[in-house]
Amino acid sequence: MIVVKIVMNVFPEKQKELVQTLLSMIGPMEKEAGCLSYALSCDIEDKKLLNLFEEWHTRKDLDHHFRSELFGVLLGTRSLLSKPHGIHIYTIGQLEGMEAVLTARRKELHRDTWGKAN
User: Fold this and answer.
1) For the segment 66-101, what is each residue's pLDDT rounded down to a tens digit?
2) What sections of the chain are H helices per DSSP?
3) 80 with 14: CB under 8 angstroms?
4) Hey, what's the torsion of the CAs at 81, 86, 89, 90, to 10 degrees?
5) What domains are defined for the chain?
6) Of 26, 94, 117, 118, which residue is most buried, by most CB within 10 angstroms?
7) How far apart are alpha carbons 60 and 66 in whole angstroms?
8) How far is 29 from 70, CA to CA, in rounded Å?
9) Per-residue pLDDT tens for 94-116?
């Protein structure tokens, strides 16, 4: 799986326009081959900082997306930003879920206050 994080520092007066543009992309993004998810978040401490997260099945799917008109629309939002898009691509080789959390918590429960295993 490939995860893309796109950081956008938006001009305050352009935030609504950028958010509307990004939200309008949800439907078309979900239809792209290999797109697993697409999410937008706003930084709690800095409201001008938006993060777009995309998950892709393969690098081939992502590369196809990078060449798409839809991604061109995203790049076209540059005029709404105070600095260029920060694009970070993460390739994930292994996924873990709640079982990893439960395993770690069980290990912690078996230690006494001095850090020794019971």
Assistant:
1) 999 999 999 999 999 999 999 999 999 888 899 988
2) 15-24, 26-31, 59-66, 69-75, 98-109
3) yes
4) -120
5) 2-109 (3.30.70.100)
6) 26
7) 10
8) 8
9) 888 999 888 888 876 655 555 55
Residues in the chain: 118
Residue type present at position 76? G
- Quote the DSSP letter at residue 85: -
Q: How many CB atoms lie within 10 A of CB 54?
A: 21
What contacts 7, CB < 8 A, 6 or more positions away?
49, 50, 51, 85, 86, 87, 88
C-alpha 61/C-alpha 76 separation (Å) is 21
Tokens of 99: 């079982």
CA distances from 93 to 24, 69, 99 (A): 31, 29, 17
Q: What is the pTM of this model?
A: 0.81
Q: Which residue type sits at 66?
A: F
Q: Which two tokens stand for residue 1?
A: 């799986």
